[in-house]
């Protein structure tokens, strides 16, 4: 018995000792947590309940010269459904009505949505996708649907908002407007105005401290460290939407007709250098028949220009007073030989004996090569230096990445040969971008003053100008006024009675130069010849307002109609013709606005007028957002809304031609 009592006492002591050790360990741990690790755990607890959140800044818009929206940020909405959230009674009462409403808005049968909703309820799916990329007006409408109108907690509607960048005018000028996005590695990349002016457009994000409350919600905590976001500035481009639309469709039509690989057209304002239109269209694959804006050929693609480079010859010869336009040359049956290499005229048999001026007008290779070679063969550096002084030996210094580099061979370098000088005379062995060529021709149109191409006119914050971009002169005088006068005369004659005579119109005057260059000559040329067809010039010829270049690569050569006058010339003529015969004047636009009605008139009257005169876009500035949306949707337009209140700005100018399903963006304030 004594032994048994002893064993019991031993066990009691053992248990007590173990409990003591446990208590000691707990005390030690609590002390450590409280005094040693306390700061760490308090910080951890705070991080889980209090956290800084980024407040994204609103990105600025890009506008055209006439105030139309070219790029803007708009909200898109994804709608999901928490099938567990609604009470059984609410779900059963409203599910059929919800399915019917979704069917009307989204287009699929009511039974499809009913089955989806009931299946999600049975499977306790808390994240069923209902619709993606809804506009603001669609989002407002779907919130009013049965069941969803009970709110997120009772109705189960989950809203995911995402801001996306959109081009209201579609794919037109897409490459120049550009983009900014993350690549597959999460690195920011971009092109065009969006990328080059991102430091103005993006603004600065803010931050706010929030505290976690019930049901995973976060409540803002106002403190001295809160930083308000600074919205991005707006960028005012030089693009004119009307001219851009003309240029885009004129180029597209010609590319399709000739099944060309790619091409570009640029329209520049003569006095200022402002780019009023720039279109770059190309195929993704050779077999494609659809064209996209994937590469900015006008800026990035340096190529042999062919006969459009002959203007350089004329500037050098006339300004250096080597010869005059009246100097006569023998074309030798259209073929001359230089060091075993033949220079040919496109006109078989040549032109007999003709003047330098006439040789330029008919684009005679033999005439221009003779003139350049005879006068510069003993000192080719004099000719090349003249090219350098024109600024053709270096990039224009545009604000965009990827500008093509020109190539002008220099006497004495490893690429210079005995035929370099004569080949340069008709645009081979040199490389320039279309925009460089246009800048030179624009200088002639501008009486010798060479101005830098300009894509952006100013940076604005609402109505306040942050930065203004003024005209930038590259060269105040590329040649003497007497030379300019002679150049304008021969360029005008190219259209009147030269290689560009197909473009002549008695209604308006044009001046310019055709160009046709073989792109795959030499040992690796292959049996099929590829050509670059171009036309560059200005209009009106007497008092130029615009200059324009059109370049088309690899047009179909069947039918022998691959020359610049046939392929590129019609685009130039179409642009000039539309600008000077179809462009509405300011007074005409004002009259259109009057026909539509004043902003202050009642909505009913406004709607009546809009319906009766529905060929033009109405002026909805000053109207309430709800009224403006109703009016425009009634006119079969697709409306996207930014902000709340009254219409401050509309993406399509009042008086513009109305087309069905046209997208218009309204900014409210």
UniProtKB/TrEMBL annotation:
Pfam families, alphabetized: PASTA, PBP_dimer, Transpeptidase
CDD domains, A to Z: PASTA_Pbp2x-like_2
Membrane spanning residue stretches: 12-30
Keyword annotations: Carboxypeptidase, Hydrolase, Membrane, Protease, Transmembrane, Transmembrane helix
Hydrolase as UniProt keyword: yes
Gene3D superfamilies noted in UniProt: 3.30.450.330, DD-peptidase/beta-lactamase superfamily (3.40.710.10), Penicillin-binding protein 2a (Domain 2) (3.90.1310.10)
Keyword Lyase found: no
Primary localization class, coarse: membrane
Record localization: Membrane
Top-level taxon of origin: Bacteria
Domain PASTA: 611-669
Protein name: Penicillin-binding protein
């Amino acid at each position: 018995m004594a032994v048994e009592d002893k064993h019991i006492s031993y066990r009691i002591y053992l248990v007590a000792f173990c409990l003591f050790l446990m208590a000691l360990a707990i005390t030690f741990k609590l002390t450590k947590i409280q005094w040693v690790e306390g700061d760490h755990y308090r910080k951890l607890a705070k991080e889980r309940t209090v956290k800084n959140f980024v407040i994204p800044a609103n990105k600025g818009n890009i506008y055209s010269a006439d105030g139309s929206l070219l790029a803007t940020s708009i909200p898109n909405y994804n709608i999901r459904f928490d099938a567990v959230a609604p009470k059984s009674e609410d779900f059963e009462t409203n599910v059929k009505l919800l399915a019917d409403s979704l069917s009307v808005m989204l287009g699929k049968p009511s039974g499809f949505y009913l089955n989806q909703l009931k299946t999600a309820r049975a499977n306790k799916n808390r994240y069923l996708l209902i619709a993606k990329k809804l506009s603001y007006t669609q989002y407002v409408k779907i919130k009013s649907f049965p069941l969803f109108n009970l709110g997120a907690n009772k109705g189960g509607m989950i809203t995911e908002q995402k801001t996306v960048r959109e081009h209201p005018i579609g794919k037109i000028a897409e490459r120049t407007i550009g983009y900014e996005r993350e690549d597959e590695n999460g690195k920011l990349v971009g092109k065009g105005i969006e990328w080059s002016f991102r430091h103005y457009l993006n603004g600065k994000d803010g931050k706010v401290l929030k505290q976690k409350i019930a049901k995973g919600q976060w409540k803002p905590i106002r403190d001295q460290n809160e930083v308000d976001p600074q919205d991005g500035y707006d960028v005012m481009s030089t693009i004119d939407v009307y001219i851009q639309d003309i240029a885009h469709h004129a180029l597209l039509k010609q590319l399709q007709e000739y099944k060309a690989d790619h091409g570009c057209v640029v329209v520049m304002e003569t006095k200022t250098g402002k780019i009023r239109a720039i279109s770059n269209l190309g195929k993704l694959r050779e077999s494609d028949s659809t064209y996209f804006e994937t590469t900015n050929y006008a800026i990035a693609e340096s190529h042999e220009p062919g006969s459009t480079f002959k203007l350089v010859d004329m500037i050098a010869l006339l300004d250096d007073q080597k010869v005059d336009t009246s100097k006569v040359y023998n074309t030798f049956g259209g073929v001359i030989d230089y060091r075993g290499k033949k220079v040919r005229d496109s006109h078989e048999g040549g032109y007999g004996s003709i003047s330098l001026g006439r040789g330029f007008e008919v684009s005679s290779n033999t005439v221009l090569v003779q003139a350049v070679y005879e006068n510069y063969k003993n000192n080719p550096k004099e000719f090349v230096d003249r090219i350098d002084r024109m600024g053709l030996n270096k990039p224009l210094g545009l604000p965009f990445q990827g500008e093509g580099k020109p190539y002008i061979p220099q006497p004495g370098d490893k690429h210079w040969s005995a035929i370099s000088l004569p080949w340069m005379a008709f645009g081979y062995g040199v490389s320039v971008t279309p925009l460089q060529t246009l800048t030179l021709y624009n200088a002639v149109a501008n009486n010798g003053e060479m101005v830098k191409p300009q894509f952006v006119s100013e940076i604005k914050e609402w109505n306040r100008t942050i930065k203004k971009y003024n005209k930038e002169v590259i060269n105040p005088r590329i040649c003497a006024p007497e030379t300019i006068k002679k150049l304008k005369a021969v360029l005008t004659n190219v259209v009147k009675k030269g290689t560009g005579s197909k473009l002549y119109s008695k209604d308006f005057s044009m001046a310019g130069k055709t160009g046709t260059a073989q792109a795959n000559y030499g040992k690796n040329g292959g049996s099929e010849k590829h050509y670059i067809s171009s036309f560059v010039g200005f209009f009106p010829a007497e008092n130029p307002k615009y200059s324009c270049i059109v370049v088309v690569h690899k047009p179909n050569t069947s039918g022998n109609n691959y020359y610049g006058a046939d392929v590129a010339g019609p685009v130039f003529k179409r642009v000039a013709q539309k600008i000077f015969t179809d462009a509405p004047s300011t007074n005409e636009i004002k009259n259109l606005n009057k026909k539509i009605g004043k902003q202050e008139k009642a909505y009913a009257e406004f709607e009546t007028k809009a319906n009766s005169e529905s060929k033009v876009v109405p002026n909805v500035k000053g109207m309430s957002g709800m009224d403006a949306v109703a009016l425009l949707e009634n006119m079969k337009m697709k409306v996207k809304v930014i902000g709340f209140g009254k219409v401050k700005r509309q993406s399509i100018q009042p008086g513009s031609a109305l087309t069905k399903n046209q997208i218009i963006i309204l900014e409210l304030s």
